[in-house]
Amino acid sequence: MGIISSLRSVARFKKPTFSLASRRLARAANVMDLRDIARRRLPGGIFDYIDGGAEDERTMRENSAAFGRWTFVPRVLRDVSRIDISTDILGERLPAPIIFSPTGFTRIAHSQGELAVARVAARHGLPYSLSTMSTRSIEEVAAVNPGTKWFQVYVWRDRDMVRDMLMRADAHGFSAIQITVDTAILGRRERDVRRGFTLPPELGLATIASGLRHPAWTWDFVRAEPITFSNVERYAGDRRRTAVNLSMFIASQFDPTLSWNDVAWFRENWPGRIILKGIQSAEDARLAADHGVDAIMVSNHGGRQLDRAPAPIDIVAPVRDAVGPDMCVILDGGVRRGSDIVTAVALGANAVTMGRTYLWGLGAAGERGVEAALGMLTSEMRRSMALAGLRNLAEIDRSVVRRAD
Fold it and tell me: What is the pTM of this model?
């Protein structure tokens, strides 16, 4: 008894955890740990599709590394007992300056896919963005998410198809569209080329062998209904019969004639807010403002389009200077820490997005992993603000950061 009493005085006995997901998440201290768990749980081609970028992946790496060139200028003795990270975005009060970015083919990470992410966003009162290339439809997402929803849309050749999707989104409560403007043609993602990975995946001996090495993902995958591009299949006629043909149909829709004139077309056909996703220069930010958009998303498509494009954090300040204080500016790409969010706000962003971060969580532990990723970012943001002497977003400006180099 004496030994047990002594142990109890200096230590606590850990309660056993029977949930595999709980044990996995307990080992994760940050979103990069979630990435490591997802890398182990997912087949190699699946993980690389989520994780990879274009060509040499210099832009993808720089998106995150560029945050490291900024340091804080901490203030002390400022009573940081209450930290408020809420903000206003496009007329709505959000509990945090975070938006769930659109990701295509999300069910490749987990069978619940977009539905899991949309539920997390709704629970936390944050905007969820649905991709045109999603594996759950506009209608399915609306059924599980009564909150703020945005729809990401491409400028495709078949404008009647695009118009119909806009009508569906409007009818199901989506309040804004994100027009992706950096995909006149598709970038080359060489990890996928090396893996022989395609969308949808083509089954071969290597695919089967990889599935056997990752039984949890494989069991989840085979029990679920077949994956398809849910928003688009109704428009493809006979080609909808196979996901392979549907993928070819989608590839044929990307329009290299994309121009500023297309923004006016969307204004005529969409009653809600318009966000341009893919702005990468101050000059284009000014043009976007001149064309009357409601928000600008500074983005290089997560480093998946033009390699050697600028890191979003490097052009937030020039974009803010170009458009003035009233335009909503959203940073898309590279956020891995709550301190990254504080830095982005300091340089002029109204909000940031999470995309790969929640996909890593989804691949690591499904919906609970998405919750974990969001919780990590928000708790780190509060901690960084407190340690820097910042109590709310109104106190965050360029004076609180300094260029390290």
Answer: 0.92
